[in-house]
Amino acid sequence: MKGVSTVLVTVSPEVTAQMRPPRALYPKGFKVGNSLGKPHMRELQLSVLRDALGLLAENTRPGEIVTREYPDYGEYHEPPRTRKLV
Amino acid sequence: MTISRKCVPFTPFEGSLAKSTVALVTAGGVHLRDQEGFNIADELGDLSFRVLPEDVDSQRLMVTHHHYDHTDADRDINVVFPIDVLRDLKAEGFIGGIAKKHIGYMGYTMQLKAMYEGTAREIANEIDKGSRADVVVLTGG
User: Fold this and answer.
1) Is B13 in Cβ contact with A57 (below 8 Å)?
2) d(CA B125, CA A6)
């Protein structure tokens, strides 16, 4: 098995960092349940998914979580903090 | 193979996105309406997963998960499982294709070892055999 390249979209960067995923995008301030943005905001969803896939072609450091901002989302939610069990 | 906590299982990406086939794997508890839902009654969580076909109608998908607010996903599943978004990216030529299989599971468990060593490997095998995916996009809730 050669392995498959992966990229994660996370809205819980601190919790995610514990698992050290190969590549990850954190859309800043998106709430849990809105990984790609809000319902029916297709342009925003497209931007997030393009950026996530784009990380594959960038020289990201393994385990790094890249933060990007999407003003069209229009809200800011504090991400969940690390708990003992996640 | 022993997976080290210090080692990130990084698979380099070679080639171009425009020629790549993409699969989605979500921990957001997504499944088809006519598939069995995830067991939210068990406090230990549910280690199973559902295979979602390439041509899945997003209107036929639903969420069973009790550890995040999926009200928005109930209105538009693409906020956690962006299958229609992926189709748009294929139409515009940003990616090459949509994988034959996608996966939904419930990413809440108290059985971390079983999830990591069992379910995760089964999902990887499912993707590896027959999905034709070059790339996997993972999402949570």
Assistant:
1) yes
2) 14
Average pLDDT of the segment spanning B86-98:
98
| Domain annotation covers residue B78 | yes
Give how far B118 is from chain A: nearest CA, Å.
16
pLDDT per residue as tens digits for the range B17-44? 999 999 999 999 999 999 999 999 999 9
The one-letter code for the residue type at A82 is: T
Closest approach of A11 to chain B, Cα-based (Å) = 8
Torsion angle, alpha carbons of A55, A79, B140, B99, to 10: -20
Q: What pLDDT score was predicted for residue A12?
A: 95
Q: Cβ separation of B140 and A50 shorter than 8 Å?
A: no
- Asked whether residue A82 is domain-assigned, the answer is no
Q: What is the pLDDT of residues A27-51, one digit of tens each?
A: 999 999 999 999 999 999 999 999 9
Tell me if chain B has a CB within 8 Å of the CB of A65. no
Question: Into how many domains does chain A fold?
Answer: 1
**Confidence bin at B7 (pLDDT 50/70/90):** confident
| B123 membership: H or E segment, kind and range | helix B120-128
Residue A21 near chain B (CB below 8 Å): yes
